[in-house]
Amino acid sequence: MANRTTHSSSFRDPSGYIFTEQGAIKRVINPIYFKQYQALKDSGVFNTLFKSELLIPHEEVSVSQEAIIIQPENIPFITYPYEWSFNQYKEAALLTLKLQKFSLEKGFSLKDASAFNITFHKGKAIFIDTLSFDFYEENTPWRAYKQFITHFFGPLLLAHFHGSETLKLLSNFIDGIPVKTVASMLPFKTKLNPFLYSNIHMLAKFEAKHNEDYKGETKVSTLSKKGQLNIIEGLYNYIKKLELKEQSEWGEYYNKTNYSNQAFNLKETLINGWIEKLQAKTVIDVGGNDGTFVRRIKTNLEQALVCDIDNNAVDYNYKQIKQNKERFITPFVLDILNPSAAIGFNNTERFSFLKRIQDFSPNVTLALAVIHHMSLSGNITFNMSAAFFASFSKHLIIEFPKRGDSWVERLLNSKGEFKDHFNFYTLENFEKAYLAYFDIIEKQDVGDSKRVLYLLKAK
Amino acid sequence: MMHLLYFDPGLGAMIIQAVIAAVLGVILFFKGAYYKFKLLLAALIGSVFFSKKGKDRVKSSLGVADERGNELFDDINVEDSDIENKTNSGE
Lengths: 459, 91
Hints:
The complex is a heterodimer. By secondary structure, chain A is an alpha/beta fold.
């Protein structure tokens, strides 16, 4: 019981709560949930879902009359819904529906359908809220239906019609985007689609009509299991076919860079040599596009985080992970100039990116061709970016494109008459600022390019 | 039965599901009927072609080809083959 800290997001569900003990995440199950837990265990539901890698596996640590304690498998880095690409979001939505259908077949039902019940682990979406399963009561509607619409279906529809940026809305709507908001943002033609009309527009009207029933006099109608399965399967089939209207150009990304083959290969050789020398097992590639460089690392990595601001790049990376069945890469969408903040009650329900990456503490951070975007597009000073990188990783491999590099010139020219403000952008100033936080272990020109690669160690 | 519900499921959402299920029932019925019609049509036209390739081409053009294996996401069903191993839930 010593050094037990209750997780700050785990206070809503009376079935139990999460705590950390000596760095390990554990879950207390309260007596109120004993029957459900035992039934899920005895029926083989847990076992099947563990083997299918749909639910995070756990071990039973202790059993008493007051509490059952389980320890779920450790997930090195948790990503949140507002950090997922469109297809990642789709997979999370489909997983929830898949689990609900399976649960119904086994006499259970998901009592909630929060997008925060899911994260990405070993290359796929996985359900992490073990206590979300309750007994199914015959002829009752799905109690988590509205939550599914506000957490999954609504955001996906908004992304379909308005672009992937709308997926970030969940960082403001931690309890899901209200149905009336979703309905108001959808084009008129969606009212002509019976599926969308009934699941969004009519739902919004019903919710508005009944939300003033303070006395609880309105009778909830019954719904057969077959009827509920129709809804679940209908949503599954619709979401599965949902696509973004944005064009993806990231498959061609590395053909558009200003590298010669010789410089690109040298960069790869240098990075591989340094990663091997450091015997790195965990990395984060900041601005890692579609994960191309992480895949070129020859050392066996246990976990590689690859983040990028562009949904299409992350989505392309995600599709490769699915197709190649890669288990060590976790892709996510992140604007390094505005990383995910801490949100929720007391700002502690969902952790900031900085807190999570500091806890993860990767052996190496890769920041390849990203400093010029931070400095010239984001006006981040070298001192600020150095402090940022030094805060979460012991080693930093950073690429500095010098003045004269075509990308740097393009960014500088876009500044117009304000261009002189960026005279600070020189190799000398970069080194001076970074040396306050790092020691230079190695420094190498990248072939015929106007770029310099550094291996730095935090002081 | 006591439900361990800790958020508002939405009264409107609880009522409307019966309506949605009915709407979906109608959609699924007509979709199923339309699919069967296309399948029948594919079989009839496909029989003109003697090769499997020809039949597949007809099926594909009518949207009834088997596209499993080419998709990013699998179907809704959970593989349940190990369900007999009931008593050991991974502990």
